[in-house]
Each structure stands twice: as structure tokens, then as C-alpha cells.
């Protein structure tokens, strides 16, 4: 791949990434900020704005990369245009000199005399070949000038379009930066509003962390039980924390694994508001929480869908929490949490995209949030890279 092709491929990749971020912001606005009448807790509002700010910053970064790449492409094309103009001028000068020379000896009589003055047949034949080659060369030079002129015209058109594209990106980034500034100011106002009652919000966050830990424990227990029961049924006893797979289960696991990055979302419309892994507290930067789930904000009464073919391995009912559904896909498990309704029961076979329940809507916080996890055997893994880009 040459430099120009590499630049073009990079530009296409960046544009695809930018469009994905634009779609994500559109979804955020539709799902988190469209209903002005809906009352949300301050903490939820801050979470929503934080999420939007992070996506907006990524959008600005990507757009900057695109503009910088276009600048490099424009500079490269301008150099190429300068070189092409010099080559074209040289071709035209050579061709002009050739035409003048040809004109001076263009009479048919002079050509015939050139041939007749040959000392022998062999020399006459060579002179005839020379005349033919000279005519062909004239034709080739004319075609070369035409091709070089067309190449130069195409490059000039491309350069003009690139300059327009760059200007458009710069303008879009100006707009994005203004919106980011407004969002940052809005967040400052909200953060100031909770400072006077920080102990109350810290208590709420602490309670939420405790609930998450209890849910983690319950899911871990249920997974261990599911592995033990499955292996016992297969006539195997193992304490490795891994499923002993039948040929059918191995095929299912292989199919699930081959669909990494292509799995359908567990809800029809949603944005990943809460990320997997260690996240800092909104009210205290020194406090972090390790999340085993991603949290997908969606619309009220949203149905939850199985991301792949499988079997319902268990229904979790956590004290002071909402139920969750666990589905097995060979030695992989997908877990759907914070449900209000369950349509399936343990042992049911489910298919990709099948509705298995509804997401719970928290009226106090003003949000509809689905927790989603993926395990390989008893090890939790980040589910976000497994889901298809929308």
C-alpha cells in the first residue's frame, strides 16, 4: 500500500469513527435529554452529562485528526501538482521543438530524397524505420501531454474538494467545541448544587456500591453452581471453574466467539452510559469502583433481547434489587440485569434477538438502565467490544 492509499484508508476509518460518534450523540440526546418534563436526580443528570462530554471530546479529537490528515494530503497534492506542471511544460517544450523540426522537413519530396539518397537497400530500410518511429514518437508525446493534462485537472479537482472538506470539518469542530463548553458549564452548576449536601450523595453512592457487590456475589455463586451442575450432568467432576463441553456446546461456543464485535444489542435503542472496569466516583475523585457490567441507557418499557442462541441458565432474584437473567452459550454466559419483567424460565432455549423481558425504569432517578455482562466460564470480560457498532 503506497502513501496515498494509506492516507485514504486512514481517512475512511476516521470518518467511520466520526459518524459512529455522531450517531452516539444523537442517541444520547434522544434517550437521555429529550424528555424535559422527566424529573431526574442530580446524580443521574451529572452522569448523563459526563457521558455526553466524554463522547463529545472523542468526536472533537477524531475531527481534529481528520483535519490534520487532510492538511497533510493537501500539502502532498500541492507538491504533486507543482511537479506535474513542470513535467507537462517539459513535454510541451519537447513537442514544440519536434513539431518545428518536423515542419522544416515535412515536404514529401524531402522524405523521398532522404530515402533515395541511401547507399543501399539496408540503409534505405533503416531510414524508413526511423521515419516511422519518429512519427510514432510524435504521436506518443501528444498522448502523454493529453494524459498528463487530465491527471493535473483531476488532481486540481481533488485538491479543491479536500479544501472544502477541511473547512467543513473545522466549522463542525467549532460548533462541537461551543456545545462542549455549554455542557461543561452545566456540569459545574450541577456539581455546585450538590456540594452543600455531599454527605447525602456520598451515602447514596456508597449504598449503590454495596448493592453492586451483593449482585456480583450472587452472580458468581450462580455461575459456579451452573458449571458444577453442567459438569456433573456430563459425568465430569472438576473444580477448575470451566465448563466441560459436549460437541454441541463446543460448536455453540465457537459460533458465539466468532461473532465478537457483531453481536446484536440487548435492547433495540441504547447508549452505553456506564463503562466496564474501574470508574471514579462523581463526587470524590479518590474513590473508584470496579464495574463488571456495562450499563445501557434505553427507553421506558424497552424489551430485553438475547444477544445469541442459548439456554436460560438461571433467573437471579437479589435482595433489594431487580431480577436478572443468565443465558448460557457453550462456555460463554450473557447476563441481563435490572429487569422489571421476565418472559423466560430456567431451562428455556432462546434464539438470537428473542425478547426475554423488560428493563426496569427507576422513577426516582428518572432512568431506564440495563446492566449487561459476558462471562467466559467463571471469568467476567468486557462486553462492549462484543457488541456490533450501531
Report on the architecture of this protein:
The chain has 390 residues and is α+β, with helices and mostly antiparallel strands. Helices cover 58% and strands 16% of the residues. The protein has six helices and 14 strands. The strands form three sheets. Strands 1, 4, 6, 7, 8, 10, 12, 13 and 14 form a nine-stranded antiparallel β-sheet that branches. Strands 5-11-9 form a three-stranded antiparallel β-sheet, with no helix packed on it. Strand 13 and strand 14 form a beta hairpin. Helix 2 (42-104) runs antiparallel to helix 4 (121-195). The model has no long low-confidence stretch (mean pLDDT 81).
How are the secondary structure elements laid out?
Layout: H1 3-32, H2 42-104, H3 108-116, H4 121-195, H5 198-233, H6 247-258, E1 271-274, E2 277-280, E3 288-291, E4 294-297, E5 303-305, E6 310-316, E7 324-329, E8 332-337, E9 339-342, E10 349-350, E11 355-359, E12 361-362, E13 367-376, E14 379-381
Antiparallel strand pairs: 1-4, 2-3, 4-13, 5-11, 6-7, 6-10, 7-8, 8-13, 9-11, 12-13, 13-14
Helix pairs in contact: 1-2, 2-4, 3-4
Protein name: Peptidoglycan DD-metalloendopeptidase family protein
Pfam family, one: Peptidase_M23
Domain M23ase beta-sheet core: 291-383
Amino acid at each position: 500500500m503506497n502513501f496515498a492509499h494509506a492516507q485514504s484508508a486512514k481517512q475512511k476509518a476516521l470518518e467511520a469513527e466520526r459518524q459512529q460518534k455522531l450517531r452516539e450523540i444523537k442517541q444520547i440526546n434522544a434517550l437521555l435529554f429529550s424528555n424535559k418534563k422527566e424529573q431526574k436526580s442530580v446524580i443521574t443528570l451529572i452522569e448523563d452529562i459526563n457521558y455526553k462530554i466524554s463522547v463529545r471530546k472523542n468526536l472533537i479529537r477524531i475531527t481534529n485528526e481528520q483535519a490534520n490528515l487532510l492538511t497533510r494530503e493537501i500539502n502532498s497534492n500541492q507538491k504533486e501538482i507543482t511537479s506535474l506542471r513542470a513535467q507537462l511544460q517539459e513535454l510541451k517544450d519537447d513537442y514544440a521543438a519536434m513539431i518545428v523540426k518536423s515542419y522544416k522537413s515535412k515536404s514529401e519530396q524531402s522524405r523521398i530524397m532522404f530515402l533515395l539518397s541511401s547507399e543501399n537497400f539496408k540503409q534505405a530500410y533503416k531510414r524508413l524505420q526511423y521515419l516511422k518511429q519518429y512519427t510514432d514518437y510524435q504521436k506518443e508525446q501528444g498522448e502523454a501531454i493529453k494524459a498528463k493534462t487530465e491527471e493535473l485537472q483531476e488532481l486540481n479537482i481533488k485538491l479543491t474538494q479536500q479544501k472544502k472538506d477541511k473547512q467543513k470539518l473545522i466549522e463542525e469542530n467549532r460548533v462541537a467545541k461551543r456545545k462542549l463548553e455549554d455542557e461543561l458549564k452545566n456540569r459545574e452548576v450541577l456539581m455546585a448544587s450538590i456540594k452543600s449536601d455531599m454527605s447525602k450523595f456520598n451515602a447514596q453512592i456508597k449504598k449503590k456500591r454495596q448493592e453492586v457487590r451483593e449482585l456480583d456475589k450472587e452472580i458468581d455463586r450462580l455461575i459456579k453452581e451452573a458449571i458444577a451442575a453442567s459438569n456433573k450432568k456430563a459425568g465430569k467432576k472438576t473444580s477448575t471453574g470451566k465448563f466441560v463441553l459436549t460437541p454441541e456446546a463446543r460448536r455453540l461456543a465457537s459460533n458465539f466467539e466468532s461473532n465478537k464485535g457483531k453481536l446484536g444489542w440487548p435492547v433495540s435503542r441504547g447508549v452505553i452510559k456506564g463503562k466496564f472496569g474501574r470508574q471514579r466516583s462523581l463526587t470524590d475523585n479518590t474513590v473508584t469502583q470496579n464495574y463488571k457490567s456495562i450499563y445501557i441507557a434505553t427507553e421506558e418499557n424497552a424489551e430485553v433481547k438475547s444477544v445469541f442462541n442459548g439456554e436460560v441458565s438461571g433467573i437471579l432474584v437479589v435482595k433489594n434489587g431487580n431480577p436478572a437473567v443468565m443465558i448460557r452459550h457453550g462456555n460463554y454466559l450473557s447476563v441481563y440485569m435490572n429487569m422489571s419483567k421476565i418472559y423466560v424460565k430456567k431451562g428455556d432455549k432462546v434464539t438470537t434477538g428473542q425478547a426475554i423481558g423488560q428493563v426496569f425504569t427507576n422513577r426516582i432517578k428518572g432512568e431506564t438502565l440495563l446492566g449487561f455482562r459476558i462471562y467466559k466460564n467463571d471469568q467476567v470480560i468486557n462486553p462492549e467490544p462484543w457488541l456490533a457498532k450501531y
